[in-house]
Amino acid sequence: MVYMFLNGGGMRGGPLHDQLQGAPLVAEISSAPRYRFYAVHGDFPAMARAAGGEVGCRVAGEVYDLPLDVLRDSLLPAEPEELELGGQQ
User: Fold this and answer.
1) pLDDT, tens digit, for every residue of 16-64?
2) How many Cβ atoms sit within 10 Å of the Cβ of residue 29?
């Protein structure tokens, strides 16, 4: 199991939430106020740490206790190549 922060379609009520296969919600949180929030292909939400003098913002999301096989077999194959997993910063 791994704690995973999700935003966008994977959140409760979102069109991709069923891909979590019943993984339990741990918390509703926001990131630290140092991220940029944007869309990949106009559809997939993504966040990246604001660089240098850029102004960042908080990104709201949900944390799930996700089984590794769900991450490997369900979530990652559905993501576009431009998105990648990032660690906690």
Assistant:
1) 899 999 999 999 999 999 988 888 888 777 888 888 888 899 999 999 9
2) 12
Closest of 16, 11, 13 to residue 80, by C-alpha: 16
pLDDT beyond 70 at 83: no
Single-letter residue type at 16:
L
**Residue 42 CB contacts under 8 Å (≥ 6 apart), including other chains:** none
CB atoms within 10 A of CB 30: 13
Q: Which domains does the chain have, with CATH numbers?
A: 2-78 (3.10.490.10)
Handedness of CA 71, 50, 31, 15 (dihedral sign): negative
